[in-house]
């Protein structure tokens, strides 16, 4: 039997371990394009097209009180490139992004209860192993 525990997943951005996640789908990462597509000619011949697009997106949902918010905000303000890594020891997977930038800073909002802030990180080179 397998037991799921969110604590088996660690995200490191620019050498900083990210903490203070919001509820729900707190970490998501994906390639920006399908690796393969196909085209079909008039005679029915099929050609598979391999995408050269290596870009990807990492989305983090963090509580406003997360200690990682100031670190990420400094990265956003600097405009400098950084890398990320997601390590899941439960599934034995690793996802990386190189030459990354934060797409835009989350909208300022406050409510009666703390709501997660969504931070989207764009990666020029994205890999999943």
Automatic annotation (TrEMBL):
InterPro entries linked: Phage_KPP10_Orf10
Superkingdom, taxonomy of origin: Bacteria
Organism of origin: Lysinibacillus piscis
Protein name: Phage tail protein
Alphabetical list of Pfam families matching this protein: Phage_Tube_PhiTE
